[in-house]
Inverse folding.
DNA sequence: AGAATGCTTCGGTTAGGATCGAAGTATGAA
DNA sequence: TTCATACTTCGATCCTAACCGAAGCATTCT
């Protein structure tokens, strides 16, 4: 390993296109598997494996084994902040910033994040749940209380099948556009499934938008954030 | 040029040891010549020249021609902030942070920055001067007013010889430890010269400390910040 | 003017590391 | 068990970019 100021090595990690693509993908806050990240970066799994080891050794990523998958996510919020800072510098110097297309507002409002609901509605739901004491957010975990279990069961979530899966029930997921967390994990997926089953929203092909109908959004809020 | 997220290129610029050494040297806020930066990075002038072009093209550095010298400094405060962020990440992950020796407090109080006074006393002096309307700080320049000229002449600064030099009379210099600016340029040098001539301070060999005596510090403040 | 200094451009060398193919381990599914 | 999937390790290739020597401008000093 070359010597030099310590932060150089961090910057060098970010400075490789393949690794930067991975980090960008993870900025959404969702945990991704090694294979997914490889696709995201346009490289083979072997190469990705090497990159991911380096990123983890450099303290930029956290890894969680889950069955035969390895889920990666940004190590902490500070990593995201530094990446944002770099993006800010890049934006200043004539590099085109991520252009805000016309569908951006919809993406901000509600979108699919892996398999759960992100965007303003997702954040609002988690805010409500923590305020009510249904969920408790700690440093790097999200736990459900008895009251929470009762509540979600009462609105039709099937905890029996959720518990069979080895997937964590609750996980918090950092929402980049809002810099806030929303609900992920098995419960997060179950909620999004409900949204589609009830016909509250549709999913336009080719996008990550969750297009709520007017009445669907009302029903969603009445169900998952009743006292708001 | 490789493609990839725009910020990748910025990170790659920082991720080279030689360039990182240059940036580290510039974190002190002082403008350095290409040759000085080459020495700082331990490379030849030719190589340094190439690096500096890239850093400037990437928007990380600003360049100012001055006679046959080329002075480089960080492009703006945001660059410094991003570098600090990277250093913070590095520090978290077991990399040793810049050790704070016992002489650190003295360095913070008053030190030589190239040829002028930096540290708390330097910052305080510029604060006073701008508050009194002696100096006017703009985006990337520092101008002296008539009142300022009168004031500094009244305390014994010789403007005749200063004007003969082609060196800019006033320059603001970013102070890293304080994230504030202090006075550089010909006037800044003249002030520091005065400090040593009057015997207000000595300069311990091998360090950048400006060691004021108790009475010297009083005299300095009485002279350059009389109403504080 | 000539000499010296500061910096840049050009050309050729070299080393680091990103990449992939092939083969090896681990976990889950049938 | 056998097969499939997810990921890692090993080995070899190849390409980028850092680097320096030499030579060429530009500025300043004498």
């Amino acid at each position: 390993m070359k010597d030099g100021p310590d932060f150089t090595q961090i910057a060098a990690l970010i400075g490789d296109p393949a690794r930067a693509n991975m980090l960008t993908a993870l900025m959404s806050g969702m945990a991704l598997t090694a294979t997914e990240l490889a696709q995201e970066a346009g490289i083979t799994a072997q190469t990705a494996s090497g990159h991911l080891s380096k990123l983890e050794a450099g303290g930029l990523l956290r890894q969680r084994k889950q069955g035969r998958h390895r889920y990666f996510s940004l190590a902490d919020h500070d990593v995201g902040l530094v990446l944002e800072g770099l993006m800010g510098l890049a934006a200043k110097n004539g590099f085109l910033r991520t252009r805000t297309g016309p569908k951006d507002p919809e993406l901000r409002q509600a979108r699919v994040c892996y398999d759960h609901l992100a965007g303003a509605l997702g954040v609002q739901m988690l805010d409500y749940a923590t305020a009510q004491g249904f969920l408790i957010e700690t440093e790097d975990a999200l736990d459900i209380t008895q009251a929470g279990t009762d509540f979600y069961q009462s609105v039709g979530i099937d905890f029996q099948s959720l518990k069979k899966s080895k997937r964590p029930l609750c996980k918090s997921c950092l929402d980049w556009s809002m810099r806030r967390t929303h609900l992920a994990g098995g419960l997060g997926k179950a909620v999004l499934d409900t949204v589609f089953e009830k016909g509250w929203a549709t999913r336009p092909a080719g996008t990550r938008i969750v297009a709520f109908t007017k009445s669907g959004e009302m029903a969603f809020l009445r169900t998952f954030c009743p006292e708001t």
Q: What stands out?
A: Chain A has a mean pLDDT of 83.
